[in-house]
Amino acid sequence: EYRLRFAELVVKQNLQERCQTSINPLEPDLGIHYDSHKFKNSKWKPTTVLEHFFPVSTAHSHYSADFDIEDYQNTDIEVVLETLFDDDRLHLTEKSLRPIACAQPFILAGTHGSLEYLRSYGFKTFSDIWNESYDLIQDSEERLISIAVLMKQISTWTPEQRANKLAQAQLIADYNKKYFFSAEFFDRVVGELHHNLTMALDELEHTNT
Q: Is the dihedral of CA 149, 115, 101, 196 positive or negative?
Protein backbone atom coordinates (compact mmCIF):
# COMPACT_ATOMS: atom_id res chain seq x y z
CA GLU A 1 0.00 0.00 0.00
CA TYR A 2 2.73 2.50 0.93
CA ARG A 3 4.26 2.22 -2.54
CA LEU A 4 1.20 3.91 -4.03
CA ARG A 5 1.69 6.84 -1.67
CA PHE A 6 5.38 6.87 -2.58
CA ALA A 7 4.50 7.18 -6.27
CA GLU A 8 2.24 10.10 -5.40
CA LEU A 9 5.05 11.81 -3.48
CA VAL A 10 7.32 11.40 -6.51
CA VAL A 11 4.69 13.27 -8.55
CA LYS A 12 4.27 15.97 -5.88
CA GLN A 13 8.04 16.55 -5.97
CA ASN A 14 7.83 16.64 -9.79
CA LEU A 15 10.35 13.83 -10.06
CA GLN A 16 8.46 11.44 -12.31
CA GLU A 17 10.62 12.39 -15.30
CA ARG A 18 13.76 11.81 -13.24
CA CYS A 19 12.79 8.31 -12.15
CA GLN A 20 12.63 5.05 -14.05
CA THR A 21 9.45 3.48 -12.73
CA SER A 22 6.02 2.33 -13.79
CA ILE A 23 2.72 1.46 -12.16
CA ASN A 24 0.14 -1.25 -12.49
CA PRO A 25 -3.13 0.43 -11.40
CA LEU A 26 -4.85 -2.96 -11.16
CA GLU A 27 -4.20 -5.64 -8.58
CA PRO A 28 -3.21 -8.40 -11.04
CA ASP A 29 -4.94 -11.37 -9.43
CA LEU A 30 -8.20 -9.64 -8.52
CA GLY A 31 -8.33 -7.01 -11.25
CA ILE A 32 -9.19 -4.31 -8.69
CA HIS A 33 -8.08 -0.71 -9.29
CA TYR A 34 -6.24 0.86 -6.37
CA ASP A 35 -9.14 3.30 -6.00
CA SER A 36 -11.38 0.35 -5.09
CA HIS A 37 -8.83 -1.28 -2.80
CA LYS A 38 -9.71 -1.39 0.90
CA PHE A 39 -6.61 0.09 2.47
CA LYS A 40 -5.45 -1.31 5.79
CA ASN A 41 -3.83 2.07 6.34
CA SER A 42 -5.93 4.85 4.84
CA LYS A 43 -3.04 7.35 4.78
CA TRP A 44 -1.45 5.40 1.93
CA LYS A 45 -4.41 5.87 -0.43
CA PRO A 46 -3.33 8.27 -3.19
CA THR A 47 -5.52 11.14 -4.32
CA THR A 48 -3.56 11.45 -7.58
CA VAL A 49 -4.40 9.45 -10.71
CA LEU A 50 -0.98 7.83 -10.82
CA GLU A 51 -1.33 6.27 -14.26
CA HIS A 52 -1.50 9.79 -15.70
CA PHE A 53 2.12 10.30 -14.65
CA PHE A 54 3.83 6.92 -15.04
CA PRO A 55 4.00 4.28 -17.77
CA VAL A 56 1.47 1.54 -17.11
CA SER A 57 2.82 -1.90 -16.32
CA THR A 58 1.02 -5.25 -16.26
CA ALA A 59 3.60 -6.86 -14.00
CA HIS A 60 2.47 -9.08 -11.15
CA SER A 61 3.57 -8.20 -7.64
CA HIS A 62 5.93 -11.20 -7.43
CA TYR A 63 7.97 -9.68 -10.27
CA SER A 64 9.62 -7.53 -7.61
CA ALA A 65 11.83 -10.53 -6.91
CA ASP A 66 13.29 -10.20 -10.43
CA PHE A 67 15.31 -7.40 -11.99
CA ASP A 68 16.33 -6.10 -15.39
CA ILE A 69 20.00 -5.26 -15.80
CA GLU A 70 19.02 -2.30 -18.02
CA ASP A 71 17.40 -0.68 -14.98
CA TYR A 72 20.83 -0.58 -13.35
CA GLN A 73 22.60 0.54 -16.49
CA ASN A 74 20.20 3.47 -16.96
CA THR A 75 19.97 4.75 -13.38
CA ASP A 76 22.42 6.04 -10.78
CA ILE A 77 20.64 5.35 -7.47
CA GLU A 78 18.07 2.71 -6.60
CA VAL A 79 15.28 3.60 -4.21
CA VAL A 80 14.59 0.24 -2.58
CA LEU A 81 10.92 -0.13 -1.64
CA GLU A 82 11.17 -2.95 0.88
CA THR A 83 8.43 -5.46 1.72
CA LEU A 84 7.98 -4.07 5.24
CA PHE A 85 7.70 -0.33 5.73
CA ASP A 86 4.73 0.56 7.91
CA ASP A 87 5.90 -1.84 10.60
CA ASP A 88 8.26 -2.12 13.57
CA ARG A 89 10.02 -5.31 12.51
CA LEU A 90 13.47 -5.23 10.94
CA HIS A 91 13.20 -7.51 7.92
CA LEU A 92 15.39 -7.03 4.87
CA THR A 93 14.79 -9.10 1.73
CA GLU A 94 16.48 -9.64 -1.62
CA LYS A 95 15.27 -6.14 -2.56
CA SER A 96 17.87 -4.55 -0.28
CA LEU A 97 20.64 -6.95 -1.28
CA ARG A 98 20.05 -6.58 -5.03
CA PRO A 99 21.64 -3.11 -5.45
CA ILE A 100 24.45 -4.29 -3.17
CA ALA A 101 25.11 -7.32 -5.39
CA CYS A 102 24.87 -5.09 -8.49
CA ALA A 103 27.19 -2.41 -7.01
CA GLN A 104 24.64 0.41 -7.17
CA PRO A 105 24.17 3.18 -4.59
CA PHE A 106 20.76 3.07 -2.91
CA ILE A 107 18.22 4.80 -0.70
CA LEU A 108 16.38 2.31 1.52
CA ALA A 109 12.65 2.67 2.17
CA GLY A 110 12.20 0.14 4.94
CA THR A 111 11.16 0.11 8.57
CA HIS A 112 12.98 2.66 10.74
CA GLY A 113 16.45 1.49 11.67
CA SER A 114 16.88 -0.64 8.54
CA LEU A 115 20.07 1.13 7.47
CA GLU A 116 21.60 0.60 10.89
CA TYR A 117 20.54 -3.05 10.72
CA LEU A 118 22.25 -3.37 7.33
CA ARG A 119 25.40 -1.74 8.69
CA SER A 120 25.43 -4.22 11.58
CA TYR A 121 26.19 -6.91 9.00
CA GLY A 122 29.27 -5.03 7.81
CA PHE A 123 27.87 -3.07 4.87
CA LYS A 124 28.45 0.65 4.38
CA THR A 125 25.77 3.23 3.57
CA PHE A 126 25.90 6.76 2.19
CA SER A 127 25.51 9.18 5.11
CA ASP A 128 28.69 11.07 4.14
CA ILE A 129 27.20 11.80 0.70
CA TRP A 130 23.50 12.46 1.36
CA ASN A 131 21.26 12.77 4.39
CA GLU A 132 20.27 9.36 5.77
CA SER A 133 18.43 10.69 8.82
CA TYR A 134 15.18 9.42 7.27
CA ASP A 135 16.12 5.99 8.61
CA LEU A 136 15.69 7.25 12.19
CA ILE A 137 12.14 8.58 11.71
CA GLN A 138 9.66 6.31 13.47
CA ASP A 139 6.52 7.75 11.89
CA SER A 140 6.18 5.87 8.59
CA GLU A 141 4.50 8.68 6.64
CA GLU A 142 7.08 11.24 7.77
CA ARG A 143 9.85 8.79 6.85
CA LEU A 144 8.41 8.35 3.35
CA ILE A 145 8.06 12.12 2.87
CA SER A 146 11.67 12.56 4.03
CA ILE A 147 12.85 10.09 1.39
CA ALA A 148 10.96 11.97 -1.34
CA VAL A 149 12.48 15.25 -0.14
CA LEU A 150 15.95 13.68 -0.25
CA MET A 151 15.31 12.57 -3.83
CA LYS A 152 14.34 16.15 -4.68
CA GLN A 153 17.54 17.46 -3.11
CA ILE A 154 19.62 15.00 -5.13
CA SER A 155 17.87 16.13 -8.31
CA THR A 156 19.09 19.71 -7.71
CA TRP A 157 22.78 18.80 -7.64
CA THR A 158 24.83 20.68 -10.19
CA PRO A 159 26.60 18.54 -12.81
CA GLU A 160 29.86 19.01 -10.91
CA GLN A 161 28.28 18.07 -7.56
CA ARG A 162 26.57 15.11 -9.15
CA ALA A 163 29.75 13.72 -10.68
CA ASN A 164 31.68 14.18 -7.43
CA LYS A 165 29.04 12.71 -5.12
CA LEU A 166 28.20 9.77 -7.36
CA ALA A 167 31.89 8.93 -7.64
CA GLN A 168 32.08 8.81 -3.83
CA ALA A 169 28.91 6.73 -3.66
CA GLN A 170 30.27 4.29 -6.23
CA LEU A 171 33.31 3.59 -4.06
CA ILE A 172 30.96 2.52 -1.27
CA ALA A 173 28.80 0.48 -3.65
CA ASP A 174 31.89 -1.31 -4.99
CA TYR A 175 33.00 -2.09 -1.43
CA ASN A 176 29.55 -3.49 -0.59
CA LYS A 177 29.51 -5.73 -3.65
CA LYS A 178 32.95 -7.11 -2.86
CA TYR A 179 31.95 -7.75 0.76
CA PHE A 180 28.62 -9.33 -0.28
CA PHE A 181 30.42 -11.95 -2.35
CA SER A 182 33.19 -12.49 0.21
CA ALA A 183 33.82 -15.58 2.31
CA GLU A 184 33.63 -13.33 5.38
CA PHE A 185 29.98 -12.39 4.73
CA PHE A 186 29.08 -15.95 3.71
CA ASP A 187 30.56 -17.35 6.91
CA ARG A 188 28.77 -14.72 8.96
CA VAL A 189 25.37 -15.58 7.48
CA VAL A 190 25.94 -19.33 7.82
CA GLY A 191 27.11 -18.82 11.40
CA GLU A 192 23.98 -16.85 12.21
CA LEU A 193 21.80 -19.55 10.64
CA HIS A 194 23.56 -22.24 12.68
CA HIS A 195 23.18 -20.20 15.88
CA ASN A 196 19.48 -19.50 15.31
CA LEU A 197 18.68 -23.10 14.43
CA THR A 198 20.54 -24.36 17.50
CA MET A 199 18.62 -21.98 19.75
CA ALA A 200 15.30 -22.96 18.14
CA LEU A 201 15.99 -26.68 18.50
CA ASP A 202 17.06 -26.21 22.14
CA GLU A 203 13.87 -24.27 22.85
CA LEU A 204 11.80 -26.96 21.14
CA GLU A 205 13.46 -29.67 23.19
CA HIS A 206 12.75 -27.88 26.47
CA THR A 207 9.16 -26.91 25.65
CA ASN A 208 8.00 -29.95 23.69
CA THR A 209 5.26 -31.85 25.54
A: negative
